[in-house]
Amino acid sequence: MLWRFHGGLKLAEHKHESNRLPSTPVRLPKTLTVPLHQHIGLPAEAIVQVGNHVLKGQRIADGVDHISAAVHAPSSGTVVAIEPRPIPHPSGLSALCVVIDTDGRDQWIDREACTNFLELDRREIIRKIHDAGIVGLGGAVFPTHAKVCCPVVPTELLIINGAECEPYISCDDRLMRERPAQIIEGINVLMHALGTERCIIGVEDNKQEAIDSLNQILMLMDEGERIQVRALPTLYPTGGERQLIRVLTGREVPKGGLPANIGIMCQNVGTAAAVYEAVVQGSPLISRMVTVTGAGVAVQQNVEALIGTPMIDLIDQCGGYEQGVAQLVMGGPMMGFALHRDDLPIVKSTNCVLAADKNELPTRPTPLPCIRCGECVKVCPAQLLPQQLYWYARAKDFEKVQEYKLDACIECGACAYVCPSQLPLVDYYRYAKSQIRAQARDRIKADQARQRHEARDARIAREAAEREARRNMKKAALNAVGDDADKDSKRAAVAAAVERARAKKAGQQADSPLNPSSEPAE
Amino acid sequence: MDILTAILAITVLAAAFGLLLGFGAIRFKVEGDPVADRIDSMLPQTQCGQCEFSGCRPYAEAVAAGEAAINRCVPGGESTMLALADLLDTDPLPLGEDAAEPVKTVAIIDEETCIGCTKCIQACPVDAILGAAKHMHTVIGSECTGCELCLPPCPVDCIDMVPISVTPATWQWPHPEFVQPDTQKAA
Fold this sequence. Notes:
heterodimer; A: 6-stranded mixed β-sheet; 39% helix; 16% strand; B: mainly alpha; 3-methyladenine DNA Glycosylase II, Chain A, domain 3; two-stranded antiparallel ribbon
C-alpha cells in the first residue's frame, strides 16, 4: 500500500532525452580541481603539500570533525596548488581546492578489498565508509558515516531513494539500470551495519527499466524477502526524504526531527553503490554519475566523471554546445542553481549539468503582486503557507518567518512554479534562511565577545585588587619598619644630643675662658 | 457567630496568601535587571564605545534606565535599533546622517612595522591581540570584533582594519529585487 504526501506537482519529465544512451566514462582531464568542502559540515583539511605526488584514491584531505568528510585524489598525478579556486556555488565565489596535474597513468593506491563483509563488525564498516569520504549523493551531501553510525533509535527500515523526481535528471536511473548488483550489495552492507532486516527501494514509475533491472538482480540473489522495490506514482517532489517516507510508510517525520527519530533511514541509490565500492572493493568516492542534458548540448547522456573534472570537459565529451545555449545550471530546473562559468569542477553533489536554451529556462517575467490565490498552499509538500512566508521574508520579519516554520521548507520550488504572479518565492525563502543563519552566527560571535570582555574586565579588576593589596602590604611593612627605625634613631639622636650637651657643659665648666672657639660659632 | 466565622476565614486566607507572596518574593527574586540583560543580548558586543559608553553592557543599562537613545549603536546598525525599538515598544529613531550599513572588519597588524609596545594589547576589549613587550604582536582574527580601539594607541600606525571577506560558507542570498508595478508607475 502506498500513501501520498500533501501537494506536489506533475511536471514535464524530460528524462528520455538523456536516459536512452548508456553511460560513458569521461576522459581523464589534464588538471583536476578538487574542492575541500564538498559536504555538509566543516571543510576537510588538506594533508598533502604542493609538489607531492599522489596516487588515485589516496586521501588528500581529512574530515576535521564528526560531521565532515575526507577527500581523495581522483587520479594519480602531482599536486600543483592548494589555493582558492572557483567552485560550483550559487555565490560564484572561490574556495580552497587541491589542484592535481594528472600523469595519465591513473595508478591506484593499494586497495583493501573485502571478500565477505558479513565478517566485519559495524564499527569496521562505518570506519571504511568514513575513510572513503562517502556523502549522500542525492544532493544533500551529508556525511554518510555520521548518518549510519549513531541513529537515535534502532533502524527498523532502510529506504533507498531511487525516486529521482526532478525533471531532466537521469543519473540514478542509469545507475539502477547499469549497476543494480552494486546497489543491492551496497544495501546489504548498510543493512548489516545498521542491523536492519527490511529495506524498500522507492523508484518512480516512469523508470520501469530501472525497476525491472533491480528486480531481476534481487531474484538472482534471492533477496526478495528483505529488499523490495516499490514503484511510486510520478509526482514532484517524491524524492524529498520526508515525502518519500510518507509515500512508502504513511508516517510523518516529526517537525524539527529526523527520519532516525522514527526508526527510518534514507539513502540514495548512488550512495548505496558508493558504499559497495568503499567496503567491498576498498575504493573511495572519487567519481560519480552525472547527467549532461538540456537542449544546449549536442548529445544528452549520462557520464561517469571523476570529481574535479571541469564541466566543460563533460560538455565537450557530449558533443559540445548547441546553438542557442542560454544558461548552465547545476542540478535540475526546479532546485538547481545557475553557474557563472563552465570550467567549474564536478563535485560530489553534481548530479546534473543542464545546458538550457531559452525555451527550457525562460527568464522570469517581472513579478506581479501576490493576489493571495492560495495555489502555493495547495502544492506545498511541506504543508506550509508559502504566501505568508513570502510576505514576512520580503518584509525582513525573520521572527515571523520562523514562526511559520521556514526551516521546514525544502526549497522544492513547487510554489514558485504554480504562482500566477510569477513571484520568485524560493529566492525569498533562501534569502530569509541565509539571513537567519547569519544572525545566528553573529549571535554566537557576540556571545563569545561578551564572554571575553567580561573575563578581561574581571582580570583587570583582579589585577588592580592584587596590586592594591600588594601596595598596602608594602606600605604596612614599610610603616612598621619605619616606626621602629624612627624611634631608634630619634632615641639615638636624643641620646646623642644629651651626650653632646653634657660634654659641652662639662667643657664649658672646665675651660670656658680659655676656649673662645665656641664664640664664632654662635 | 456567622460573621465571626467569615472574618476569621478571611483573615486566615489573607495571612496565608500574604505569607505565600512574601515567600515568593524572596525565593524567586530576580537578580539584576532583566531588561538590561535582554538589551545587552541584542547588542553586537564589539565593546567599541562608539555609543559613548565604555562598553555594550553600560550602554544596555543606560538604555534600560531610559538615559540613552536606542540609535547609538553604530556597528549594530538599523537592525539592532529596530530590535531595540521592538523590545522597548518605542518608536524607531533615525540613525546618524553618515550611518552606512555597517561593514564587518577585522584588525590586522603589519608585523614588519610593529615595535612591540603592547599598547594595543591593553586597549583591546576582548583580549584578541597576542604579543609581549618588544616582541611582534598579532591579532587573533576569530576573536577580533572590529571595534578599532587598538588604532589610536598604536604609536607607529601599523594596524589596519580590513573587511572580512565573504566565503561560500558565509555568503548570503540577496534580497530578490522586486519593483512593484505601481511604484514603477509612480517613478
